[in-house]
Every structure is written in structure tokens, then in C-alpha cells.
Write a structure and sequence with these properties.
The complex is a heterodimer of chains A (about 240) and B (about 325). Helices cover about 80% and strands about 0% of the residues of chain A. Chain A is mainly alpha-helical and about 240 residues long. Chain B is built from twelve helices and 14 strands. In chain B, β9 and β10 form a beta hairpin. The relative contact order of chain B is 0.13. Classes of the chains: A mainly alpha (about 240), B alpha/beta (about 325).
Chain lengths: ~240, ~325
């Protein structure tokens, strides 16, 4: 049975890449949008561009994974295509994981382009294992956040609207542009319940010379967030079919 | 398990809160037969299919498909069944062949066999010339045909068809019925839900009639029609509106049931034929209307359905026009 599920996860992710992700709207949300945001912050407060790179990568992870994820599941639920997948000999969690993996792979492609581009242009020397340790769980966290929101609502536009709330809160409060330590204490507490905080912090550590052991802690916390999002998403999807 | 029975259902129940959608139903489906599940909208046909194919869980009762319990071994059962849902839900963005290849991947069809099997099905269903066209460009009939092809990609032993001809024009529906007949000849067991009685009559070896979540009768179409043959059915058409005459006729013939078939035609169920003929002629004379045609007719499955279910023929007419 696990072989059926693994096969299902792989082919669903592959199909989603072809049908939804590698299309201009997803690419523009995933890559153009974070670059535009970072440029806006840079022009308002010019400083070392290198300092903004971890934030740029964090935003690319966030936007590329959530760009289509929330829409895709909701769209397929409405059309009945998701039910079609459930008729195949694979479990419901495998179907949802296939969807999450599709978003994560697309995010990985976008993030890789942005990371390699930034590193080459600015001549940076990040710690590659640390980068992987932060980027991979982050991709899964935000892809599963998109999945959770998509099964929470009924309409596609509701998913997009609801997703914007955590997305924009995280941009401003997770240390992507402004350091968390420079924020008022109340907002700092808020920052630490947001997964993007750990992504941004982990990425900064990956690019800093004095990389610390906290990268592993960030990876663990991000894994926790992934589980926190994926299990309720599976449960809610189960309920939708009951 | 009796080897001849591929679906065994025992006290299967599904409730949504206080609504009992399927109410302790029991039936068995034999290998290689076309089993029809007949009933008005909301009778519980689709809910039953959804439970048998693992989309939703039963509230109570048991069901097995090919010996696999649908509650605990549904993934194993899914390897051997094909399902055609009421809506053609393949992927609009993918071409016909890509949709079939994707299904073949999901069902674990061997890599070397996938394209061959997909092309074979496209040829069988007359879609080969359009194999590279996106699904969204297909007509409703072609979409339906491709959805059935997708359900057959892994050579299933049982095919579940939920209202396969709904929304199709006459030609497409007839072509689809021929295809279903051909599948039956190949030995595939077909579980068919429909509210088209003619379709069930034409295709099914046995029929279960479902009303308000309960099975009221399981039999062959022939045996069901025999139930209706026990009483006379007389059809009469006037040159005026029949609705204006029915009330009068009902007052004169209290022991029969009179139903308007269309604007000018009515059917009279039960009663003594000679008395009915006399009464109709006398009514025509009194009301000064012309009788265009009057004759005894052979009961159809629809007549049997009405008799068995006790449904109002008006409700039945609405049902037929509802989709």
C-alpha cells in the first residue's frame, strides 16, 4: 500500500507542476512579487543589499509555495477532480501530500533560481547544508499552510483572501526586512509564533560567517509547523468527503 | 464469500445528521451482470456508490467489493474497480491521452503498457483522432466517453457508472449505451445508477429500486414489468386539453388512477376495460371533444416503477425533466 501511496504522491505532484505551477501567473507570484517587494524596501531605505538576500529568499519560499497551492486544491474540490484522485488506489493523506509536494517542488525551483542568482551576482558564500536544512522544511510548511487554508474555505477567492492575512503579517513581523529584535516586545512575541520568522532567521544564519547551532532548532520548529498544518488539513479534507 | 457475488451489501446505512440518505439496504451483485440502481433524485443512489467506492464511509452496516471490506480494505478494492462519477471530472488542461496516461500512472499500470492501453481505449471510444486535444474542448458526449475510458485504463473487474447518460443528446446516449453493452459482453460487471427507466430496461440484467434510501424491490426488468401487467393500462388522446377532462373522468371512474402523459394524452391505470371505454366515450360526447386514439397498452418499466414505488406520476414526470 505504501508503494501505491508513494507513486500517487509523485505523479500528483508531477501533474500539478505541469497543469498549474509552470504557468506565468504562478511564476510571477513566486518570483517577481518577492523581488518587487525587496526592491521597494531597498529603495525606501537603501543599505547593504546582501542583508536583504535572506529576506528575499524567505519571501520567494513563502510566495512561490502558497501562490497556487490554496487555489489548486479548492479548484479541484469544486470541479470534482480531487474526488477523481481519491477513486484511485491511494489514501487521502497521500493525495494531499502529493498536492503539497507539487507546491514545494515549484517553490524549490523558484527559490533555487533566486538563491543562485543572488549568490552569483553578489558573490556571497552561504553555508549550503544549512541552507538546505532551512529551505526544505520551509517549503513544506508554507505549501501545507496553503493546503490547510484551501480546505478551510469553500470558494477559491476566499482561500486567496484568507491566505493574504498570514502572508502579509509574516512579511512585516517575521524579520524578513526589519530585524525582530528591533520590534516592540509584543510584536516580538507574535513573530515567534510565525513560521517565516524561523525561515528568515535560519537563512540569515546560513549566510552569516558565524553560523550557529540555532539552525537545527529552526529546522525542528519548522518541522513542527509542517505537522501543525498538514494534520488538520488532512482531517478537514476527510470531513469534506463525509 | 459466494464466488459469484462480487458486491455484497448488508444493512448499509448513511446518515447526514438526522437525514437518513441510505437506510439499511441489502443487495448482492453477481459477477458479469449489469446491475441497475434505479430511483428518483435524492433516493440515495450516488451516496451508495460513494460508499462502495470508498469516497465516503458508511454510518452503519457492511459492504464488500470483490471480497474486500469497503471500510477497511478499500484501497485493495480500488485496484480492481473503475468509477465513472456523475460529472466528467478529468483535467481540462490535459489532452485526452495525457488524462488517460495520468490515470494509468495513478493506478500503477506498467510503464510499458500505459501508452498502448491508452491508445487502445481512445480507439475503442472513437476518440483517437482527438487524442492531443485538451479535455475542455470536448463535447459533453466525448467527455463522458473519455471519463469511461479513464475508468477502464487498469482493466477493472467492476465498473461503477453513476448516471452515465445524463445531459447527453439522443445520439450520444445511444452510443454510450452500446459501449456499456459491449463492456458487459467482455465480462465486466457493471453497477449502473440511473433514473432513466428505458435505459435500465434496455441494459440491466437486474434492477434494484431505491426510494427514500430504501430498496423496495430487486428483480429483472421483465419480472418488474409483469407486476404492472396485472392491471390494465389504457391510453387515450383527445383533441382538447386533457387536464380539463381528467377531473371529470376521475369522478366517473373512482377505482382507477388517471395520469396526464402530455397535453392531449392520458393514461388510465386499473379498473375494468369495458367500463373505462364506455366512460371515456360518454365523457367525450358530453364535453363535445373528439377522441383521437384509445387503446390498451403494454406496461413499460415506468408503469412498473410507478406501481412498485407508489410515486406520483407527476413527480415522475418532474424527475424525467429535472436533469
Amino acid at each position: 500500500m505504501w508503494r501505491d501511496n508513494l507513486r500517487g504522491i509523485y505523479y500528483i505532484a508531477l501533474k500539478d507542476m505541469r497543469t498549474y505551477y509552470l504557468k506565468p501567473p504562478a511564476i510571477s507570484w513566486g518570483i517577481v512579487f518577492p523581488i518587487a517587494w525587496i526592491l521597494a524596501f531597498y529603495l525606501r531605505n537603501p543599505r547593504s543589499f546582501e542583508e536583504l538576500v535572506p529576506g528575499l529568499i524567505a519571501m520567494t519560499i513563502l510566495f512561490s509555495t502558497t501562490a497556487a497551492e490554496a487555489v489548486v486544491i479548492n479548484f479541484e474540490l469544486r470541479l470534482g477532480s480531487l474526488e477523481r484522485l481519491l477513486l484511485a488506489p491511494i489514501s487521502l493523506p497521500a493525495v494531499l501530500l502529493g498536492k503539497v509536494l507539487g507546491g514545494a517542488i515549484f517553490g524549490l525551483m523558484m527559490t533555487t533560481v533566486v538563491t543562485i542568482g543572488s549568490v552569483l551576482i553578489l558573490g556571497l558564500h552561504p553555508n549550503l547544508p544549512y541552507l538546505v536544512l532551512i529551505i526544505i522544511p520551509s517549503l513544506l510548511v508554507f505549501s501545507s499552510l496553503g493546503a490547510l487554508i484551501s480546505v478551510l474555505v469553500k470558494e477559491v477567492f476566499e482561500a486567496q483572501t484568507l491566505l493574504n492575512l498570514p502572508r502579509f503579517l509574516m512579511i512585516f513581523l517575521s524579520g524578513v526586512v526589519y530585524p525582530v529584535s528591533a520590534m516592540p516586545m509584543v510584536l516580538q512575541y507574535l513573530a515567534y509564533v510565525m513560521p517565516l520568522t524561523y525561515t528568515a532567521k535560519g537563512l540569515r544564519d546560513s549566510f552569516s560567517v558565524s553560523s550557529s547551532i540555532t539552525v537545527f532548532t529552526d529546522t525542528l520548529v519548522l518541522t513542527g509547523f509542517f505537522l501543525l498544518f498538514i494534520f488538520p488539513a488532512i482531517e478537514l479534507l476527510h470531513k469534506k468527503f463525509q | 464469500m459466494n464466488q459469484d457475488m462480487v458486491i455484497v451489501v448488508s444493512n448499509l446505512t448513511k446518515s447526514y445528521g438526522e437525514i437518513l440518505a441510505v437506510d439499511h439496504i441489502n443487495f448482492e451483485v453477481k459477477k458479469s451482470e449489469i446491475f441497475g440502481f434505479l430511483g428518483p433524485n435524492g433516493a440515495g443512489k450516488t451516496t451508495t456508490i460513494r460508499m462502495l467506492t470508498g469516497i465516503s464511509k458508511p454510518t452503519d452496516g457492511k459492504a464488500s467489493v470483490l471480497g474486500f471490506d469497503v471500510d477497511t480494505k478499500i484501497v485493495e478494492a480500488k485496484r480492481h474497480i473503475g468509477v465513472v462519477p456523475e460529472t466528467s471530472n478529468l483535467y481540462d488542461e490535459l489532452s485526452a491521452i495525457d488524462n488517460l496516461l495520468f490515470m494509468a500512472q495513478l493506478y500503477g499500470v506498467q510503464r510499458t503498457q500505459r501508452r498502448k492501453r491508452a491508445e487502445e481505449l481512445l480507439k475503442t471510444f472513437g476518440l483517437y483522432e482527438r487524442k492531443d486535444s485538451p479535455f475542455r474542448t470536448f463535447s459533453r458526449g466525448m467527455k463522458r466517453a473519455l471519463t469511461i475510458a479513464a475508468a477502464l485504463i487498469h482493466n477493472p473487474e467492476i465498473l461503477f457508472l453513476d448516471e452515465p447518460t445524463v445531459g447527453l443528446d439522443v445520439v450520444a446516449a445511444r452510443s454510450l449505451r452500446n459501449l456499456i453493452g459491449n463492456l458487459h459482453q467482455q465480462g465486466i460487471t457493471v453497477f449502473l445508477t440511473t433514473h432513466y427507466l428505458e435505459e435500465a430496461d434496455l441494459l440491466c440484467d437486474r434492477i434494484a429500486i431505491l426510494v427514500k434510501g430504501q430498496i423496495v424491490r430487486i428483480d429483472t426488468p421483465k419480472a418488474m414489468k409483469a407486476v404492472a401487467e396485472e392491471e390494465s393500462v389504457i391510453e387515450v388522446s383527445f383533441n382538447g386539453k386533457v387536464s380539463e377532462l381528467i377531473e371529470d373522468l376521475s369522478n366517473r371512474l373512482t377505482e382507477v388512477k388517471i395520469v396526464a402523459v402530455d397535453n392531449n394524452k392520458a393514461r388510465i391505470y386499473g379498473g375494468i376495460s369495458n367500463k373505462i371505454y364506455d366512460c371515456v366515450f360518454s365523457l367525450a360526447k358530453d364535453k363535445n371533444v373528439e377522441i383521437q386514439l384509445i387503446n390498451s397498452i403494454k406496461p413499460s418499466l415506468e408503469d412498473a416503477f410507478l406501481k412498485i414505488t407508489g410515486l406520483s406520476p407527476i413527480v415522475m414526470a418532474i424527475e424525467k425533466g429535472a436533469k
